[in-house]
Amino acid sequence: SINEKLKKTVFKLNILLIGLTIFSLIIWQIVNPNSLNNFIENPFLLVFPLIYISGLIGLFFVQKLNNEIYAFAFSTLLILGGITSSLASLFPVILPSTNSVNNSLTIYNTATTAYGLSVATYWGAVGFILLFVYMIVQKKIMGGKIDNMDYGH
Length: 153
Known about the structure:
This protein is mostly helical. The chain has helices spanning 2-31, 37-41, 47-59, 68-90, 114-142, and strands at residues 93-95, 105-106.
């Protein structure tokens, strides 16, 4: 079945992902030597790399698990942990400056007004509601697995 072939492929790609993770950490240390300072100063931020690592390790066991929701949960943890780890290593800097002429962009000097933030919060809430309605409608229309379909060959 396609599902079983994909599980085997995901397992092989996870090995590549570990190599790319280690490579990117080395490059990130070369580009930004202070990238681990936030984790040293605030040890509670280590929860974000732990989320990434747990998602990465969990994806190795997807082939043995019968429920696809676990694969979705582990891949979500991987993505969420990767993004939050990157943000935690940079905080409060958003875009570091590469020269001494211009200051780095931080969350403090790039923030918008209180009105702009309130509008963004309002429309963000409306957007999430619409997203969840869309997901529910799609689940009702397209629900079920496709493994038992005839692919024409």
